[in-house]
Amino acid sequence: MNNHRDGLENINLSRKPDVPGLIFRGFRGKEDYPTILVVILGCASVDGIEHSDKLEDITYQYTHLIHCDLYHDMLLAEVEDKVVGFCRVSWMLEASGQWLGCPVGYVLPQWRHKGIGSSLLHFNEERLRQIAAQLKETGQIPMDVPCLLDLTVNESEIDRINLLERNNYKVRHYFFEMVRPNLENIPDILLPPGVEVRGVESEHIRLICEATNEAFNDHWGFTPVPLEYFERMTNNPDFDSSLWSIAWQGDQVAAMVISSIFKGVNETFGRKRGYIDNICVRRPWRGQGLAKALIARNLIALMKLGMTEAGLLVDAENKSGALHLYESMGFQVVKREMVYRKPLEI
């Protein structure tokens, strides 16, 4: 990552609102992380988003972004030396071959409806257009690959939704946040014959990663998960192997259910909730009740660790019947998320 950016201060934008004292500047380095956190939390309290990040969380997240150079891909809006909003971009390739540019932006509630959000969004779009064009020119992606702008929005983020729709973004997909409000009466479901759950060893991580990518390859909007993602999870000080239910048949990973406990979120919101992050079954083992058995196993593991409820996110249009499966396991829909997309003209 670069240590500086030319033109760091007072960047001129083609679309700049008439707000006294407003300037746009680039990322200065780790000194900006506290301000970024303040803006994120200030937006969350109004937008109905649950955030409990601390400075160390933001620092870790922003130093491990993929396909994002903060010194070139981030912009901060500042009024009289106070940051009132910021934006950044990254990108990814879907398993389907589509290139997705991912714009992110925040404006503090008291500074909204002044054109700042529109300026940040325009910067994001222009920067992603530059990145996509460069990737095509250098042969890193095919010249004819479809390029889209893509971001996920919670239904409670009314201001963000209005901004996107004014700029011709359209809803393309829905996801549901689901919660099992208690961990009582968990069914005892046997694994299919010949399938067993084994403890997680370091030499298993690559196979677990490959099985995940294969199982999700036909899901809407899926992007391959890098091996580093699983390695970071297992190297985290809070890693608990009891929350990883990996089902094997012989030397093959058949399915998995992986859960997490976010202590900071639970402390902030006064609850004891575990999250089921990864539920997948490879095709040869589908239709045998394997997912249901592993979910039950994970719910019991969460209960043993003192949790009283569980949550997950599901594709509302999943063709394998995941929504019905989770409902049968006691989960209820509590929120809806929408994926907004817009073609990116290169």
Uncertain regions: pLDDT < 50 for 5+ in a row? 1-7
Would you tell me the overall average pLDDT? 93
Tell me the number of strands.
12
| Span of the ends, CA to CA | 26 Å
Superfamily (CATH H level) name of the largest domain = Gcn5-related N-acetyltransferase (GNAT)
Task: State the helix count.
Answer: 10
Give the structural class: alpha+beta
Please report which band the strand proportion falls in: under 5%, 5-15%, 15-25%, 25-35%, 35-45% or over 45%: 25-35%
The helicity comes to: 25-40%
Question: Which descriptor suits the 3D outline?
Answer: globular
Number of spatially distinct domains: 2
Strand order of the largest sheet: 1-2-3-4-5-12-6-11-10-9-8-7
SSE topology string: EHHHEEEHEHEEHHEEHEHEHE
- CATH architecture group name of the largest domain: 3-Layer(aba) Sandwich
Structure description:
The chain is of the alpha+beta class. It folds into two domains: 22-168, 3-Layer(aba) Sandwich (Aminopeptidase), CATH 3.40.630.30; 176-336, Gcn5-related N-acetyltransferase (GNAT) (Aminopeptidase). It contains ten helices and twelve strands. The chain has helices at residues 33-47, 55-63, 70-73, 116-137, 158-166, 205-216, 227-235, 263-269, 290-304, 322-328, and strands at residues 22-25, 74-79, 82-93, 99-107, 147-154, 170-180, 196-198, 244-249, 252-260, 273-281, 309-315, 332-343. Strands 1-2-3-4-5-12-6-11-10-9-8-7 form a twelve-stranded mixed sheet, sandwiched between helices. α1 (33-47) crosses α2. The longest helix is centred in the middle third of the chain and has 22 residues, at 116-137. The model is unreliable at 1-7 (pLDDT under 50).
